[in-house]
Amino acid sequence: MFEIVGTVATDAGMQVLWNPERFASVVDYDSWEDSLLEDEAILQHVLAGMLVPINLGDSAFQFVVRVGDSDQIADLTERERGRLLVTSDPYLITSAGALYLSGLEDVSASPDNQALHVAASAGRYAVTVNLIDWESEPGSRTPSGDPSPQALPDFALLLNPPTGPEPAFRQSLQTLPPPPEASA
Q1: Where are the alpha helices (H) located in the chain, listed in sequence order?
Q2: In which band, very low, low, confident or very high, does the pLDDT at 1 lie, cut at 50, 70 and 90?
Q3: How far is CA 27 from the centre of its chain?
Q4: Strand 155-160 versus strand 91-95 pairing type
């Protein structure tokens, strides 16, 4: 199993997990605009299994990405499960051996050092996006208000090879369902 942790920021409205092979022709702003400016174009990449949207507006979030394999599935830790707010339906992503997690504006043929490199063996993966309520955990903030070094991430992305019959993959730019309503 592979795991990477890091902060990913965006000024383009969404973070994305993406396959660099699909974006080899994105070499400047004009080619980025042709491929990724419009929602319909982004959705085509989602439908092709080449991009997973984390569509929450301009933001910076802490991510953990876990990639499972036939020997060990990627799963939430017990702490993460205890603070889980909501999980997306699975998205499809196809890897040729490497994926990246970045802001939408950083998708290109030559990802910069702000993109997290995700080692994922060649194949198809079911990806779930898990929103964690890290702030609800005691000790999650330092006295100055910053996240503590032991704080959980905002998101856990779990990539696992589909097993048995493949699920109906999510085909939407709206990543997460609304959180459950608090009971009155």
Answers
A1: 29-36, 39-47, 78-82
A2: confident
A3: 23
A4: unpaired
